[in-house]
Each structure stands twice: as structure tokens, then as C-alpha cells.
Design goal:
By secondary structure, the chain is of the alpha+beta class. It is about 50% helix and about 15% strand. Helix 5 runs antiparallel to helix 6, helix 8 packs antiparallel against helix 9 and helix 8 runs parallel beside helix 10. The radius of gyration is 30 Å and the shape is elongated. The chain starts with a helix and ends with a strand.
Length: about 625
């Protein structure tokens, strides 16, 4: 190679790595840590012994947490600093991707990894997936050297052993990579009887497994005890969804991903028909033509063989990105007479990634769960007597990364078994409190029977709820319970619904900013429509300064479930957030159709009430 060509190649390689760095460090700390990242951040603060203990109680091996703990000592504990470890892993993976493909096509493979939205996404997350993909790429590159008789030596064997052990200590999905690599070696041995290759590969894996042996009992216990039920799915759509992740990542719809899927499908199809098939008769060294295909297909297939398809596991397929990039690079790398066309094809591939990258950086719909925003929201209104409850495990870790005062924080038991224990736990927490902030996440797993929320709906006064990504923040007032059911309805709503009692505790505003409201409803006939109840706090004739709308009993008693003559207790609250203008305000209650928004007429002693809302009390905002 001429010196000028070598310099051009190095400059191009450096430019690709700078592009990879720019995409990974851009807006690196723009989003909050989410659930799992908070666990990483807090675990990395501990000593080595405590990190090992914490990892043993988790579902991941300890290497990433140990690496993050060491990284934190030098880089700091900010969101940017902790995520930077994954960013650097992504940059190194980009560099190693060039080693998976011979010649100048390696540059193109590195370029595709550099701009891969899937790779960029997990290079911006303080989790172990970028490190997993880095070790998968490293060991695959080393395996290529081991397969080639001219580069087969003890140093390569030892490096493969260490890389494999590191992969095992990084994630339990790494054996998928080992199975793919093992199949590659078997094909090589079938093509040519190479005792040195067999011996080197066996020794390398034996050293790796021996190094992993101390953690093996923990790994077996964690994997067999994880207990996540397999998800039902249609194979075709599921495979298409997984392909979308591998090609463009999670930050694009199927429609947005379609151009990239078509391009990669055509590229791999061409590679199989042309590049691989033509060289198959070459029995001297045919395997490198199929290594990338096996490293892509085997982990992808094993995800379905072991029935692991579900959204939270698709990130395991990050190991497929470098081999996919290598295949695409080989498919479009030109002969001298076709470089313009190949360059346009490469630009088309990069352009197809733009919608997904744009969503990653700028579309709130793809943002991570905003625990930072939740902590800021609570901190802005927090008062003595407040309590913060978490219905899912590990929420405490991520929340306390942003809210370091851990007093009055209550992680609730995961998937409670006994309803009476739930009642006793919550009754103890609520005693002496005036307001509750509850973070709901993955309720189907954390509280499958809904006992926590059901108890809170029946015994406290829900005033609001707000979504921060997949996290639902609900606010409850703890007020006096008033069982004031009267013998005569105080108002009639529509033709069949009566309000039997109403109590609005306006004096609670001075304590916690919430107005607890207690209502008792009764239907005189079976209802076939669902209605929402609203509470408005407003000056007469003016727009509300605060309101709370929901179905009865925080949604646990929809009107279609009422029985005729049954009294329905409905406790709810209205939150007068800081900044409400001082003064006296009336508290109104009304009901409207869930489908069309039309209010039910309200009657008192046969006379229709103005604006179809009933005044039930007043509150003075200090």
C-alpha cells in the first residue's frame, strides 16, 4: 500500500471514530436516568464487596458494575460521566467492527456501526449492553485471527480466553455469542482438519469457563430463579419487530424503519447470492465468508428458540449490529468501476438511520422514564408530613440518585401475596402523614392484584396523577374519613344517580395543599354508561383554579359496575398547587359521560342546578 493511501485510510478511520464519538456524546445527559440506570448508578457507589453482593441479588453478573465503580472514581458520578463509559465502549466497538471484514470494506462496516441508532442508543445508557457488544465484537475479531493459520498463535488464544470470560461476567446472554462462534469453528474443522485450531479454541474456552467458575453457582441460581413468564406472540411479526431493533433500534416505528429494512434485506440477499455462494468451493479458507452471517443469525434465532422475545430482551441483540454492518459493507463494497454506486448505497444506508436518530435525540415519545423530573416535581412542593411510596423494586435506587434525603421513602413489597398484609403495611405508613406521592411502575408485575392502589383509593383521597414516561406519579391526601350517609339524597344526577353524602375538608389546604373530598353515591337502576366525576375549585362564575377528574373510587368502581341500591364510597382530592391566587373558592362536584363529555343534569329538590355542578363546600387559599 502506498504511503498516501495508508494516510488516507487512517484519516478516514479517525473521521469515522470522531463521528461515532459525536453521536454518542451528543445530548448524553439530556434525559433522566431511568429505572435500571439508577440501579447501576447507586450500585457503583458501593465497595467491591457490596457490588458483588448486590450483583448476586440482581440478574446480571458483576463485571459492568465493577467497571462502572472504578470509572466513577475518576470520571465522577454525574449522568454524563456514568453514561460516558458506555459511550467509550460504543466507540471501541466501532473500531473493532473494522476488523471483522477484510480490506477497505472494514471502513464501511465501522461507518455503519458508528451511525447505527441501535448502537448509539445503548452507548448512551448506563447499563452493560454496550460492554456486552464490545466483548462480542472483540472475541469475534480474535476468532477470525485464530481461524487464519497465518495469525493463529498463543497470544490470540489467550486474548480470546480473556475476552470470553469478560463477556460471561458481563451478561448472561453472552453464551449466545459463544454458540455462534462454536458453530463457526465446527464448520472450519469440517472444511479442513486443523488440529491446532481445535486445540486453541478448546483451550481458550476452557480457560474462560474456569475463570467464570466461581460465579457459576450464582449464575445458575439467578437464571433458573428469574421466573419471567414467556410472552405469547406471532412468530412472523415478532421476528420483523426484532429485525427492526437490530437495524434501526427502538426509536423508530415500523413505517420509519421500512427503508432501512429494505436496504439491509437487499444487501444481505445480494451477499448470500454473490459474495458467499461464489466462494463456497474454496475449501482452503471458506469460513470467513460465513462467520458474519452466523454471528448475526444465531443470536437472533436463539432469542426465539429460548422463547425470550419481549421488548425488554431485544436489547440483547445489540451483539448482532457489528456482523450486520460487516455483511452490508461486503455487499456494497465496490470494484474500481462501481465506486460511485457503492458510495451512493452507503449514503442511502446512513440516510435511512436519520429518522431513528432524530427520534432518539428529539422525540419525547422515545425518552427514558423521567425520574429526574419526578424528583424535581416533588421537591418543589414537598412539605413535612409527606411520604413517597414505590410499588416496584429498585425505584428507590434511581429516585434517591436525584433525591438524596431518604427519610419518609417507602419501597413496597414486590408482588404481595396477602391482601391483609398490604392493608397493615399501608395503614402503618399512612399514620401520621398528610400527603402521599406514589410512583407506580410495571403494576402487572409489581402489584398484579392491584391491592396497593385499591387500598389507597378506599382509605385516602387521590388528587392527581401524571405520567413521566412509563412512571405514573399519583398524589393522595390523608384526611379525615367521614361516613355521613344520609337517609335522603342531597342531589340527583341524571335520572338514576343520587349523591347521598358529600364532605369537603377545605381546612386541609393549609397543611398539605390538598382538599380531601368524600362522596357517597347510589344508583337507583343498573347503569349502562360509564361516567367520570369532576371536582372543581373555582370562584363563582370563573374558571377553575384546580380540578380533579376520574371515574369513581380512582377507577376501581366504574358506574357500569354499580348495583342498584348499592352505596359507593368515593374518596378523592384536589391539589391546589403552589401559585394559586389567595382567596375564598367554592368546591363543586359534577358528573359527565366518559364517551361524549356531556354533563349529567344536577337536581336539588327537583330544581336544576346552574351549570350542572353542585357546590359542596369552600376552601380558603392562604
Amino acid at each position: 500500500m502506498k504511503p498516501s493511501s495508508r494516510l488516507t485510510r487512517w484519516l478516514a478511520f479517525i473521521a469515522i471514530l470522531l463521528l461515532a464519538a459525536a453521536l454518542r456524546f451528543y445530548k448524553l445527559d439530556a434525559q433522566s436516568f431511568w429505572y435500571d440506570e439508577g440501579n447501576s448508578a447507586r450500585l457503583a457507589e458501593r465497595s467491591v464487596a457490596l457490588i458483588l453482593d448486590g450483583a448476586a441479588k440482581d440478574i446480571h453478573p458483576p463485571l459492568y458494575y465493577l467497571a462502572l465503580g472504578a470509572w466513577r472514581m475518576f470520571a465522577g458520578g454525574s449522568e454524563f460521566a456514568l453514561r460516558a463509559l458506555s459511550a467509550f465502549c460504543g466507540i471501541l466497538m466501532t473500531a473493532l467492527a473494522a476488523k471483522l471484514v477484510k480490506g477497505r470494506a472494514g471502513m464501511l462496516a465501522a461507518l455503519f456501526v458508528a451511525v447505527s441508532p441501535f448502537a448509539v442508543y445503548y452507548s448512551q445508557e448506563a447499563r452493560m449492553y454496550a460492554l456486552l457488544a464490545l466483548f462480542a465484537t472483540l472475541t469475534s475479531a480474535l476468532l477470525l485471527r485464530l481461524l487464519n493459520p497465518s495469525t493463529q498463535n498463543k497470544k490470540t488464544m489467550l486474548a480470546l480466553a480473556l475476552g470470553t470470560a469478560a463477556g460471561l461476567y458481563t451478561h448472561y446472554a453472552y453464551p449466545f455469542v459463544m454458540l455462534a462462534q462454536g458453530l463457526v469453528v465446527l464448520m472450519a474443522l469440517a472444511a479442513r482438519r486443523d488440529r491446532a485450531l481445535f486445540r486453541a479454541y478448546v483451550i481458550a474456552n476452557a480457560i474462560a469457563l474456569l475463570a467464570f467458575a466461581p460465579w457459576l453457582p450464582v449464575a445458575v441460581s439467578q437464571i433458573t430463579g428469574w421466573g419471567v413468564a414467556a410472552q405469547e406472540y406471532a412468530l412472523g411479526p415478532a421476528m420483523l419487530d426484532a429485525a427492526r431493533w437490530v437495524v434501526v433500534g427502538r426509536t423508530a416505528t415500523l413505517d420509519q424503519a421500512a427503508p432501512a429494512l429494505v436496504l439491509f434485506g437487499l444487501g444481505i440477499g445480494y451477499w448470500i447470492l454473490d459474495k458467499a455462494w461464489r466462494k463456497l468451493p474454496n475449501t482452503q479458507y471458506p469460513i470467513p465468508n460465513f462467520i458474519l452471517l452466523l454471528l448475526l443469525v444465531i443470536p437472533f434465532a436463539l432469542l426465539f428458540v429460548f422463547k425470550l422475545y419481549r421488548e425488554s430482551y431485544l436489547k440483547f441483540l445489540l451483539v448482532c449490529v457489528p456482523p450486520l454492518a460487516g455483511l452490508m459493507a461486503q455487499a456494497i463494497w465496490p470494484k474500481r468501476t462501481a465506486r460511485v454506486g457503492a458510495g451512493l448505497a452507503a449514503l442511502a444506508v446512513c440516510a435511512a438511520f436519520v429518522p431513528s436518530l432524530n427520534n432518539l435525540y428529539n422525540n419525547p415519545a422515545y425518552a427514558r422514564d423521567d425520574y429526574r423530573g419526578i424528583a424535581q416535581r416533588i421537591a418543589a412542593v414537598e412539605r413535612p408530613g409527606d411520604a413517597i411510596l414505590f410499588d416496584a423494586p429498585n425505584q428507590w435506587e434511581v429516585f434517591t440518585y436525584y433525591h438524596r434525603d431518604d427519610t419518609n421513602l417507602y419501597p413496597l413489597a414486590y408482588a404481595p401475596v396477602y391482601k391483609d398484609v398490604v392493608a397493615q403495611t399501608l395503614d402503618k405508613i399512612v399514620t401520621g402523614k398528610t400527603r402521599l406521592f406514589v410512583l407506580y411502575f410495571a403494576e402487572k408485575e409489581s402489584d398484579p392484584n392491584g391491592w396497593y392502589e385499591e387500598w389507597l383509593a378506599a382509605n385516602t383521597f387521590k388528587s392527581s396523577e401524571e405520567w413521566f414516561g412509563a412512571i405514573r406519579l399519583a398524589v393522595y391526601a390523608v384526611g379525615r374519613k367521614v361516613d355521613a350517609t344520609s337517609q335522603k339524597a342531597i342531589a340527583k344526577f341524571g335520572d338514576a344517580i343520587e349523591l347521598r353524602a358529600a364532605s369537603a375538608q377545605g381546612d386541609m389546604v393549609a397543611k398539605n395543599g390538598l382538599v380531601p373530598v368524600e362522596l357517597v353515591w347510589r344508583a337507583n337502576a343498573k347503569l349502562d354508561r360509564r361516567y367520570k366525576i369532576f371536582i372543581h375549585v373555582a370562584a363563582p362564575g370563573a374558571a377553575p383554579i384546580s380540578q380533579m377528574d376520574s371515574e369513581p373510587a380512582a377507577g376501581f368502581a366504574p358506574t357500569t359496575a354499580w348495583n342498584a341500591g348499592q352505596d359507593i364510597m368515593d374518596r378523592r382530592g384536589v391539589w391546589l398547587k403552589p401559585g394559586a391566587p389567595p382567596g375564598a373558592y367554592a368546591i363543586y362536584v359534577g358528573m359527565y359521560d366518559l364517551q361524549n363529555g356531556q354533563r349529567l343534569p344536577v337536581f336539588v329538590d327537583g330544581a336544576r342546578v346552574a351549570e350542572d355542578q353542585l357546590r359542596i363546600g369552600e376552601v380558603v387559599v392562604p
